[in-house]
Amino acid sequence: MAEKMNLTAVKQENQVMERHIEDSLAIIPPIQDSYTSCSNDVEFDNLRVVDVGTGAGLPGLVLAIACPGWQVTLVESMNKRCLFLEHVVNLTGLSNVQVVRERAENLGQDLGFREKFDVAVARAVAEMRILAEYCLPLVRVGGLFVAAKGHDPQEEVRNAERAIKLMGASVLKLCSGILCGDRNLAMVYGL
Fold first, then answer.
1. Which of 43, 172, 179, 180 is most buried by a 10 A CB count?
2. DSSP characters for the chain?
3. Where are the domains of the chain?
């Protein structure tokens, strides 16, 4: 891995911490609130999480480090990114991470992955309607899909409501501000 890989446009350490690490960690409290407020047969400390379109491993690698009881699957279609992710997983010794080289739209049709995850997360992948089509097939009945959005997600979620409903899910809540680390999250339940 001696060659330089351009995985993110953010280069300054303080911006990496804020825009990538803090944003990734901001996903945890809403997931925890959802799993502790609902009567659920799955414990928050033992979730199966899929990060769709993980790119450089964000938020998946950060979640795997912060929540070592979670089993995190990183889904990425680009081979060079997968090689990078596999290198990072081996280098760090993370035993709770699996890297899957596949397109999200194909993975949802694979019976080995379909409806197998408690939580699907996506960050900076696509608009909400498309994300729902990619992520919801991966979420088990009663699971959660969390989309991290960098802008006000209300209109985007409104535009995606029909697709979300057709896929058997509903919008749980939109979250922004202090609870979400000053970031916007759209949370959708899979039914």
1. 180
2. --S-----S--SHHHHIIIIIIHHHTTHHHHHHHHHHS--SS-GGG-EEEEET-TTTTTHHHHHHH-TTSEEEEEE--HHHHHHHHHHHHHHT-SSEEEEES-HHHHTT-TTTTT-EEEEEEESSS-HHHHHHHHGGGEEEEEEEEEEESS--HHHHHHHHHHHHHTTEEEEEEE-SGGGTT-EEEEEEE-
3. 13-28+44-190
100-129: average pLDDT = 91
| Higher-confidence position of 3 and 21 | 21
Q: How far is CA 81 from CA 6, 162, 191, in A?
A: 10, 33, 32
Task: Place 102 in a pLDDT band, splitting at 50, 70 and 90.
Answer: very high
Distance in angstroms (rounded) separating the CA atoms of residues 17 and 46:
26
The answer to whether residue 177 scores a pLDDT higher than 50 is: no
- Using CA atoms, how far residue 11 sits from 6, 18, 19, 40, in Å, is 10, 12, 11, 40
Q: Which CATH number fits domain 13-28+44-190: 3.40.50.10860, 3.10.20.90, 3.40.50.150, 3.90.79.10?
A: 3.40.50.150
Tokens of 157: 């979620």
User: pLDDT at residue 87 above 90?
Assistant: yes
